[in-house]
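User: My collaborator and I are trying to settle a disagreement about how two of our proteins should look. Neither of us wants to argue from intuition anymore, so we agreed to look at predicted structures for both before our next call. Could you fold the first one, then the second, and keep them clearly separated?

Assistant: That sounds like a sensible way to settle it. I'll keep them separate. The first protein:
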Amino acid sequence: MNELPDEIQRKLAKAARLEWWSLGFLISIIVVMYLVMGSSQAMKTAWIEDTLSLIPPALFLITRRLETKAPTRHYPYGFHRVGSLGFFLSATALSTMGAFLIYSSATALLLREPPTIGNTQIFGHDLWLGWLMIVALAYSVVPPVILGRKKLPLARQTMDKVLHTDAQMNAADWKTGLAGIAGIVGIGMGWWWADAAAAGFIAVDILRDGLRAMRISVSELLDGAPRQLDSPDIHPLVDRIGRNLEQLGWGSGVKVRETGRYVRASLEPETGRAISVDEALKIGAENDAWRLIVVNRTVRMNSSAGSDGKDPPPGGPDQRK
């Protein structure tokens, strides 16, 4: 594999430090929210979202260590795609929990379950618990939003989808906090439905983030063409690589797929299956010949590359099967 440039290494190291800060703040937020959430549906939903927010930073730190491991006999291509797996797992967790929370808030609305927020005593004085909930929600917004805005440019520069998902969740946390505060204020004004409605708004936001991330992660796991970081659209790099390699005229099509933050380009015959069963038998595939569908060419680009539709001359680009 190619070593990452020093600049990318520094950005990943900075991102790792931000993720450790995120974990620390999130744990403190989860504890504070748990202590004051009472029976509020909006508070419970916000607390669950904050708990789910632990997944992306933890996955980023884990996958960052694993992706640099050297290839082994069991994993000859290395562990670059562990980031893809982490991205899929975080997207699945978000989508599942978002759907569950929508069901929960809808049930509360249909059953017309009015939440109650009582009082608590602080230094001998009675205080409406809702004020503490509002303070906790405000605290749950500020650190993640600041950290999320710092992570976004790093995610784009390092092409890290797990980091990007985490940064988007953090940067959008103000919506969760605002919805939760609106639900608490609604309860105080006697609007029983405001709490469940706020919880539903938060849940829809969770589900939308999860489904968008899942769509991109599934395409990557299925060897789809590389996608843009925040969109299912194909990355412009694919067309650039394909156009430039095909201009060399080696009689092959170019297939590009994503493997974690990296990209692999293969030169393969353009028509159908790359090799037939008979051809696979000739190179020793024996009874498993039907499983071998392509033998790629790995090329080392230099000035001696051919452009006449034939293989490059001896001493030119490497060809390995």
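The second protein, kept apart from the first:
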Amino acid sequence: MKALIVEDDADLRRQLKLQLEQRGYTIEETGSGREALYFGQEYEYDIAIVDIGLPEVSGLDVIRQWRAEGNTVPVLVLTARGDWQDKVAGLEAGADDYLAKPFHAEELLARLNALVRRASGHASPVLKFGPLELDTAARVVTREGGEVRLTSYEYRTLEYLMLNAGKTISKAELTEHLYHQDYDRDSNVLEVFIRRLRQKLDPEQSLQPIITVRGLGYRFALEDVRQA
């Protein structure tokens, strides 16, 4: 997942970046509301964390302008503890959730996880497609009840594809949203991850959960069991 952190407190911004990177997020960060507006116009993110009290352009104005421009990225606003007016203002500006400072890292991660899931149409933390299940909270994948052991990169690739099931995801999009390294688009790094995933998820080659769309990218093709 690709996250944007907008926080003018450099120490807190650094802490947030570390916590999210440890959870597998790729991060872009800024302490400027003006720069946040630019990032929101030029790049796509899976989630944004926005502090209300920013210099020059407030966090509320950043969110309002994003929404006015059609940017639907899920936004978690950071507010001062007990300041219910800020919480209300953030939600009315277009934020999706709020978190009061100081906060525990696990609560932050849980709220981000929920926002990303809901944006993809999944209320439950467990994504179920045929015999495959992916628990986004525990970060565990099972097939017919048995755990499928994946590396961190393999898990993140599968999670992104399952959250976007049915959509064709280009190699460039996967690279941008999942990996810290700036892999060359012509390299075989993603192909290696996809090949390993296919072998682990479908050792008998009976499911074909990940389809290659020639010249375009990859698509997770199993049907959501909620709609089966």
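Some points you might bring to the call about the second protein. Residues 60 and 139 are 33 Å apart (CA to CA). The mean pLDDT is 89.
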